[in-house]
Amino acid sequence: MRYLSSRSSITPRVRASLVNLIVELHQKLQFCPETLYLTVAIFDRFLSQETVARAEGKLVGMCAMLIAFKYEEVHKPPLLEELADIWMLRYGTGDVVRMEKRILHRLEWSLNLLTTYMFLNRWINIEQPDEETECMIYFFSELALTQHYLISVCPSRVAASCVYAARCTLKKYPV
């Protein structure tokens, strides 16, 4: 995606650290996996269409997670103050709401995005691999989230690559 070009304040390294932060927060708050993958998809899609200052990167990540949470989860969202503390942000509720609106407006309220998780989940439901293989597949898929060069690769191909890498790593043949 073009937001990682030399003109952008969000470099591949900054993106990786922000995605790592998203993954950590996702694990801490025990959101469903769909929320994690949708968060990163929203984050990347928004940043590919709009330039933001490096200092706003965390705010975009947190707002992408809130949007994904509201789309995927069934329970009450965490308090904005709690999230801001976890993310170590100094933004007020108004800033968060404005950024959420900005993201949703830029994405034209289209949140039905294909993610690697959707394809992996379908493959796992069909193939029903053993637990070790399934864990390795999800490990590779979370690792893939942080890799900037995979942003432009179709989620189905990333999913297939994760399955292939897991099967090769565990010496499960045929791959």
From TrEMBL:
GO biological process: cell division
Domain Cyclin-like: 20-105
SUPFAM superfamilies named in the record: Cyclin-like
Transmembrane helix listed as a keyword: no
Keywords: Cell cycle, Cell division, Cyclin
Top-rank taxon, per record: Eukaryota
Keyword match tRNA processing: no
PANTHER family noted in UniProt: CYCLINS
Family (UniProt): Belongs to the cyclin family.
Name by which UniProt lists this protein: Cyclin-like domain-containing protein
Organism expressing this protein natively: Rhynchospora breviuscula
